[in-house]
From TrEMBL, chains A, B:
InterPro entries: PAB1135-like, Ribosomal_uL5_dom_sf. This is UPF0201 protein PAP_00120. Pfam families: RNA_binding (PF01877). Coiled coil: none annotated. HAMAP family: UPF0201.
Amino acid sequence: MFEEVEVEAHVYPTEDIEKVKIAMLNLVADLEFDAFDKGDYIILTGKTKSKKALQRLYELFRGQAILDTARMILEEGTFGEEIIFKVHKQVAYAGKVNFNEESPLGPITIIIRSKNPYKLIKWLAPRTKDGVPIE
Amino acid sequence: MFEEVEVEAHVYPTEDIEKVKIAMLNLVADLEFDAFDKGDYIILTGKTKSKKALQRLYELFRGQAILDTARMILEEGTFGEEIIFKVHKQVAYAGKVNFNEESPLGPITIIIRSKNPYKLIKWLAPRTKDGVPIE
């Protein structure tokens, strides 16, 4: 249903890069990391083609009861074969999803590459009625 | 010329608290630290009554040629017997002073307690003419 998931965040000098990796892995599994030193901060990217990559987001959207918000965010973030959205870095370190981009130290950007993004969104964040997925 | 210097910053989950302490010590010497866990972040405070506390800022204001800016910031931040100002946390980690408060991860707040704040400012950030202190 998707070809690849990529995750990106800025890592500032007072941050611990290992904690930012944990924040990313809390949301997307099996990431392989790369880091680019821009001087004032490091750009940390993680990529994966693993089939399990979106399992954690699937669980969190349901467990946190945020399917409707997630669907809206994902649909608004669909551009051709990419779905792009941002989550709160500090909340991700705590193992949860928060779509508020105004996060101290910047957001984590998640990019899902899919040939059929709307089919993926129906699976990842389906419509619900009375809290129960109906798609 | 001053009774105490206190420094305060928020430490977010993805930060390394030891790096934030380094950022503070880069600007104010001999700090003794305390930390208060607020849940979403930790409030890290440092305090010192050491006579050498302001030596680094004294040197940086001159070395970075920012005496006029520093004096203005210190004067604007004088409230009774306290001088309060904020510096960029990431720049402090790199060992320099930047008065821009819009710092990723929040600023470092510095509070100088002095019975004669204007005398202290004259010493710490005197007026200059052609770059040379004249007070």
